[in-house]
Structures are given as structure tokens and as C-alpha cells.
Design goal:
By secondary structure, this protein is an alpha+beta fold. 24% of the residues lie in helices and 34% in strands. The strands form six sheets. A four-stranded antiparallel beta sheet has the order 1-2-16-13. Strands 3-12-5-9 form a four-stranded antiparallel beta sheet, with helices on one face. The protein has a two-stranded antiparallel ribbon with strand order 4-10. The longest helix is centred in the last third of the chain and has 28 residues. It starts with a helix and ends with a helix.
Length: 309
């Protein structure tokens, strides 16, 4: 354990509102994969679970419409809500302020009386003919209006197309969002992508110079190999093996393949996490670590109980 703590480290390479790249160094592949699976399937989020359709005169079938609504990411912090009791009956009024978010979609398409008679553009002829995620309205339950006064619950993106309407068609829908995990349904997954790869390792077995150095440079991605001037000759040097895409192009050249050794650093994992926008990627990583720690603690507790018996 002491040796693991000494070698293990996390280095953040890139971080913005939607994506994050970081290195996990000094861990086993099984731990890296467990961490990735937790990010995909066990960090909870809020998503539409129940759709109550009072009126749907569009051409989109009820079940298809409900499925589209369920996949819209909802901007709400799941840490502020409780998991819903699975034993409760599925009635419309069974949601409470601690476990449910209520959204409403009520919209009707009509003709635009000011439209030009020669126009054929639906955007000019009709009003509300395109139903977007921004048309979803949050209906606070209980004291939610006070609790979330500084944070309006809404869809992450405003421009997700839900349906198209024509004059006379309308949608009247109420949705209940609950807390869940991606293992139960993909709509609860907080990441668009969570992946990792081993750090490439490129070793030059001999000094490569002149035309061979130029050719070697073009066998790898830009920035991997650079040329430096040594006594008037261009000599190849590995600058940043991280940028290598592992194309193995160098092995196609008979005069170069024996000069380079391609490998991987077995305990250096490069993680890429892209958030759906519900939570920032650094928060997702923190939550995944907490889930993994709780699983480890549960396992230790089970072992302790078994030993006592």
C-alpha cells in the first residue's frame, strides 16, 4: 500500500466546461477500467423517467416522443436529490420535492397572419412549428422554488429538436425527472465519452540522422519526432510520444523498422472524459472516485464480517 501511494499520481492535462484530459499513473489496468465503468454507469444524474401525455396531435407517436424526451440531458445537480423509492406506485402525483423534478411542455402551432402570401418558408408561415428543448418549462414542487432560487433547472441545451408541428397540432405533456444511474438506462449516464489509453513509448535504438531522420519524422504524428542540429547534421529526437496515434507507419519502412522500438507504459493511463453538460467533468471524476472508494469500503466491511464469523 505504501509503495502504491508513493507511485500513484493524477496529472490534469486539459480541463474546460465540457471535457477533461488527465493522466493516472501508477495503477493497474483493472482499476483504470473500473474507474471508466463507474463514470459510464454508476455516477447518478437526473433524467425524465415518466411522461404524462394529455394531448399529442403531432405525427410523432407517443412512445417515440416519450423516448426523445427521456434522452434530453437535464441541468440539475443530482447530489441535491434522493433516489426514488422503487416500490412507490406510478401515479402522477407521487413525486416530491426531494426526489422529483417536474417539467411541462405545452405548445400549439398556428398560422402566422403576417406571413407573405408568396412565402413557402415554414419559419415564416407558422408559429411554434419547431418544438425545441427550450420549450420545456420547470414546474417547482414544494419548496424547490426557494431551494433552487439561484439555479434554474432546465435542459442542458436549448436547441434540441423534439418535434415538428403544423397548424392545429399541439403538445400538452408533463414529465417527471428522477435520479438514476447509467447501469439502469443510458439516459442517466453523465458522460458522452469516457475512455482511456496507455501512454505510447517510442525508443530510438540508434542515432537516426540525415534523410532517415526526415523520413522518420513524417512516419509519426506532428510533434512526436523533432530534428535537432548536431554538428551540422539533422538528428531525430523523440519530443512528445503522447501525441502518437499508434499508426505503426514506421514499420512499413525496411530501413527504419529496426531503428525504433514501439511500446506502451503499462501503468500510465491517459483518460478523456466528455461531460453531457449536467455536471462539470472534474466533478464527475471526483464523484467516480467517491463511488469507487465506497465500493472498496463495502468490500472491506464484508471481509471483516466474514472473518468474525
Amino acid at each position: 500500500m505504501h509503495q502504491f501511494q508513493k507511485n500513484f499520481r493524477i496529472d490534469i492535462v486539459h480541463l474546460d466546461e465540457s471535457s477533461m484530459e488527465f493522466d493516472m499513473v501508477g495503477i493497474d489496468a483493472s482499476i483504470a477500467n473500473a474507474f471508466r465503468r463507474i463514470l459510464l454507469a454508476e455516477v447518478p444524474t437526473m433524467a425524465v423517467e415518466k411522461v404524462f401525455i394529455y394531448n399529442n396531435t403531432s405525427i410523432v407517436q407517443d412512445e417515440v416522443l416519450a423516448h426523445r424526451l427521456g434522452l434530453i440531458p437535464i441541468k440539475a445537480d443530482p447530489r441535491l436529490f434522493e433516489f426514488k423509492n422503487a416500490g412507490q406506485e406510478s401515479a402522477e402525483d407521487d413525486g416530491s420535492e426531494i426526489d422529483t423534478i417536474q417539467l411541462q411542455l405545452k405548445i400549439k402551432c398556428s398560422r402566422n397572419p403576417n406571413a407573405s402570401k408568396e412565402s413557402s418558408d415554414p419559419r415564416e408561415l407558422y408559429r411554434n412549428h419547431m418544438v425545441y428543448s427550450r420549450d420545456l418549462k420547470w414546474i417547482p414542487l414544494g419548496n424547490q422554488a426557494d431551494v433552487f432560487a439561484d439555479f434554474s433547472i432546465r435542459p442542458v441545451h436549448d436547441d434540441i429538436l423534439i418535434a415538428q408541428l403544423r397548424p392545429g397540432q399541439e403538445l400538452d405533456i408533463v414529465m417527471h425527472c428522477v435520479k438514476g444511474i447509467g447501469r439502469d438506462h443510458a439516459k442517466f449516464s453523465p458522460v458522452a465519452t469516457a475512455s482511456y489509453r496507455l501512454l505510447p513509448e517510442i525508443t530510438l535504438l540508434e542515432v537516426v540522422e540525415g534523410e532517415k531522420a526526415e523520413l522518420l519524422k513524417h512516419c509519426f504524428s506532428r510533434g512526436v519526432i523533432d530534428l535537432e542540429d548536431v554538428r551540422g547534421k539533422k538528428v531525430a529526437k523523440v519530443v512528445n510520444s503522447r501525441l502518437d496515434t499508434c499508426s505503426r507507419e514506421v514499420l512499413r519502412h525496411v530501413d527504419l523498422k529496426n531503428l525504433v522500438k514501439l511500446g506502451r507504459v503499462r501503468d500510465h493511463f491517459i483518460f478523456t472524459v466528455e461531460s453531457t453538460g449536467i455536471l462539470p467533468p472534474d466533478v464527475l471524476v471526483t464523484e467516480a472516485i467517491q463511488v469507487l472508494m465506497s465500493k472498496c469500503q463495502m468490500f472491506l466491511n464484508e471481509m471483516t464480517c466474514t472473518d468474525m464469523e
